[in-house]
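Name: TetR family transcriptional regulator
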Amino acid sequence: MDLSPQRARTRQAILDAAAAQWSRDPTVGLGDIAAAAGVGRATVHRYFSDRQVLHAALITDSWTTLRAAIEQAGPATDSALKVIQRIVTAMVHAGDRMSFLFTTTEGTPSEDDAGIAREVDELILAEIERGQREGALDSAVPARWIELTIWSTVYTGLRAAADGLVPRHSVDELIRRTLHRAVSEQPK
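Structure predicted for TetR family transcriptional regulator:
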């Protein structure tokens, strides 16, 4: 789909609004999403023929956004622990997308999105395994377990902020502290 810059911005505004709305309440209708995007409902339908098409597009866009955010964290450019901390920050900043993916797919991608989801997993797992080789992360804990712990801790932090239990600006640090204590190599 080759869109003009204006149409691309409108499409992205609709996706952003859908992520914000559906991450909080998956039952929100297209009218509310249109209002949040600052467009009319007919405009939403020009870009996405129905709710299911918008939903599928948002899942793909969320995985793409998450992959780009993790790539921006600079895998293999610093110690694994520092990179993982930047990945956590990237995941927190992609908060609506993360929450949407969790509430919608429970972390299980569709066949169409399996490739990009696998890339996201591979980026995270590579840093975890490097952290284990560097001695920063507990090598007795399976890397996939640590990855799942990262995903669930980020989701928990985002949910706690959305529910008003903690301020949004403190979520990143709370997640880092929690993960550090949970998966760091412990002195023997």
